[in-house]
Design a protein that fits this description.
The complex is a heterodimer of chains A (202) and B (179). Chain A is mainly beta and 202 residues long. Chain A folds into two domains: 1-30, no CATH class; 32-198, Lipocalin (Beta Barrel), CATH 2.40.128.110. Chain A has helices spanning 5-22, 95-100; strands at residues 33-38, 42-50, 54-60, 63-69, 78-84, 88-89, 112-124, 127-136, 139-155, 160-172, 188-198. In chain A, strands 1-4-5-7-8-9-10-11-2-3-6 form an eleven-stranded antiparallel β-sheet. The longest helix of chain A has 18 residues, at 5-22. Chain A starts with a helix and ends with a strand. Chain B is mainly alpha-helical. Chain B has one domain: Up-down Bundle (Fumarate Reductase Cytochrome B subunit), CATH 1.20.950. The longest helix of chain B is centred in the last third of the chain and has 34 residues, at 134-167. The chains are: A mainly beta (202), B mainly alpha (179).
């Protein structure tokens, strides 16, 4: 019988081997580490559709996220994001005020939105799925995001190793009590996250 | 090249543009001023403003092609040379603005961070060639607005001069109306 530690060790060795193949200078860290990112390292945007043919995109200017991640194996990741709803911005005079109003995010009453999720472990190539819960306007609903490792490697400007991820998913705004303007604004709103993590030292 | 009169197509295009430009300007002010609730009229006002802008641009291109191929009626030699030169200059600037204002509107729409696509009458997509950029958006939007106001001011002067010549018995207005 194989000792309980063996398969895990073997997996670590295999991952280390993969890491060596991908980045010969740096051994892979086959364990979860905590990373933080905010609006300086990431972008959190949303897209609504209008009349079936048009769309508009806005973003949140302030958010804070914590990720438990093994950059060599993102399929084990865990993520917790807190978003300041009042930092919503559409850069269209008046639109930002509308989105902060009670009909939409009601930022005065609900200043924060949260997402907690974890990767489901099924990773196909550079893609993985994150399942979790989104809390918006005091309503919590399950939410699924499809994530992707876009790039991993040394970044000349940062002088460090970076990993770039994107994730996107859709929510039904009606479930969160945003029921106005259904002729103009689609029920389904797409969320997009782009993030650049510093995963290694300079 | 000079012709006995403006061709029917040239006259129709002139009046179509003369109608659409003030309409598009009015829609431009309206779309900004409309309240956010209900949202649909405001949203559609933006889309129709952009659509009319595209139409004006295409009609003016067509006018320039006809002007190049068919020319224009001979100028009234009774008019002082400086007036003919001034009229020629104003016409050239107006043609320039009639093309520049829609182009600047399109470029500001393309630069807008909200990234609303341009769909002519919600049917025909016009691809955006620029990436969103807030600073460029602000600059282009201001240019678009002030050149549009300048264009309409020139058009107003152009119309007043046409009426004045008409009152003095010169056939410029009749020529553009009936050929």
């Amino acid at each position: 019988m194989t000792p309980p530690g063996r398969p895990l060790l073997r997996r670590h060795l295999a991952l280390a081997g993969m890491g060596l193949a991908l980045a010969p200078v740096r051994p892979a860290q086959a364990q979860l580490r905590q990373y933080r990112f905010d609006q300086k390292l990431g972008r959190l945007s949303f897209t609504a559709r209008h009349f079936g043919v048009l769309s508009s995109t806005g973003q949140f200017e302030r958010f804070d996220a914590q990720v438990m991640l093994d950059p060599a194996d993102p399929s084990q990741a865990e993520v917790a994001v807190a978003v300041e709803t009042g930092s919503i911005d559409l850069a269209w005079p008046g639109a930002t005020e509308l989105l902060r109003s009670p009909a939409y995010f009601d930022s005065d009453t609900h200043p924060q939105a949260r997402f907690n999720g974890r990767a489901t472990g099924v990773a196909a190539a550079d893609r993985f799925r994150i399942e979790g819960e989104l809390t918006l306007k005091g309503v919590t609903r399950p939410m699924r995001m499809e994530a992707r490792l876009l790039r991993r490697g040394r970044d000349a400007t940062e002088g460090a190793e970076i990993a770039e991820f994107s994730a996107s998913g859709s929510l039904n705004r009606l479930e969160f009590g945003m029921v106005e303007d259904r002729t103009t604004v689609s029920d389904l709103i797409r969320l997009d996250v782009q993030v650049r993590l510093l995963v290694g030292p300079a | 090249m000079s012709e006995p009169g403006w061709s029917r197509a040239q006259r129709r295009l002139h009046w179509a543009v003369a109608l659409l430009v003030p309409l598009t300007l009015a829609l431009g002010f309206l779309m900004v001023e409309l309240p956010w609730r209900p949202l649909a009229p405001k949203f559609l006002a933006y889309q129709f403003h952009k659509s009319f802008g595209v139409v004006v641009f295409l009609l003016v291109l067509w006018r320039l092609v006809l002007r190049w191929r068919r020319g224009r009626p001979a100028e009234d030699v009774a008019l002082p040379a400086w007036q003919r030169r001034a009229a020629g200059l104003v016409h050239a600037v107006m043609y320039g603005l009639l093309l520049a204002v829609p182009v600047l509107g399109y470029l500001s729409a393309a630069s807008a961070p909200a990234q609303v696509p341009t769909m002519v009458f919600l049917l025909l997509p016009v691809p955006h060639v620029l990436a969103p950029d807030e600073a460029r958006f602000a600059l282009l939007r201001a240019l678009h607005l002030w050149l549009a106001v300048g264009l309409v001011a020139l058009a107003l002067g152009h119309a007043l001069m046409a009426l004045r010549h008409h009152a003095m018995g010169q056939p410029v207005l009749r020529g553009m109306w009936r050929g």
